[in-house]
Write a structure and sequence with these properties.
Layout: H1 7-13, E1 17-22, H2 27-37, E2 41-47, H3 55-58, E3 61-65, H4 70-79, E4 84-88, H5 101-104, H6 109-119, H7 128-140, E5 145-146, E6 161-164, H8 170-188, E7 194-198, E8 201-205, H9 211-221, E9 228-231, E10 245-246, H10 248-257, E11 261-265, E12 270-271, H11 274-284, E13 287-291
Parallel strand pairs: 1-2, 1-4, 2-3, 4-5, 9-11, 10-12, 11-13
Antiparallel strand pairs: 6-13, 7-8, 7-9
Helix pairs in contact: 6-7, 9-10, 10-11
Length: 305
Amino acid sequence: MPTDSHPRSIAAKSPKTIGLLAAWGRFPLVVAEALKRDGYRVCCLGVKGHADANLARVCDEFDWVGLARLGEASRWFVRHDVEHATMAGKIHKVNFFQPRAMWNLIPDWTTLKAFYPHFVAGSSDRKDDTLLLAVVDTFAKFGIEFVPATDYAPELLISEGLVAGRPLSKGEYADVEFGWQLAKEMGKLDVGQSVCIKGRAVLAVEAVEGTDRSIARAGELCPQGGFTVVKTAKPQQDMRFDVPTVGVGTLETIAQAGGRVLAIEADRTILLEDAEFRKMADRLGITVLAVRETASGQLSRPVAA
């Protein structure tokens, strides 16, 4: 299938039918609503045990699919004339590490072939990017090209600035800088996107458990609270999947754990329910800062006194 080096032009040239592969969270609903506003016919497959049933009332076509049914999903998209698709939402990766995981998920033949090197032969790793690229490549064999969801809803990407709360102290910003470096290194290794820092000491690093559970663990390890959460995109971030996302739920998790600062990457982080998010941050007393890295490797926002 022909490709285009500029993702936005792909979205612009896409046919009026768009496929949506929806997993857990609010993000798939936001994407579906944005697509409908732009006049697309949305054909959505919701991943069982993950997706929101409300997608059925937003999308033109909707059905459920098992997590390990890539062949079934691909053929469903083909039947509904889908040539371009996007994915949104989180897959609970911990499910892959349950006893007899692949067999409990009942994979179809297409999935078994795609993931045989990762889960049976052990000849390939199970990093997020590796597994998600295997998914995208499998759909491509059926003539379905995946496009970043943010091409259809670019307003979801947060801009640089103080999103909510008070300016940071020098000590807090030092934690942001320290956490940023660590998060970028972890992202480079495709380990996780988030780290929790207090006094330039590492409390928790996100891995397979996900952001919320890593924040909760930081709260258990630092009962005095007041720590900083830094969440960044990977240096090699593929905007088609696993884009850093924060919402009201993130703030609630931080507040429950005793955190006080959330630093995210400007222009590469999805912010859900913007107005409600800002109000909630102010109500919970959490400072949220969106920063970016300059060409010299420094964070662009100055330390506030």
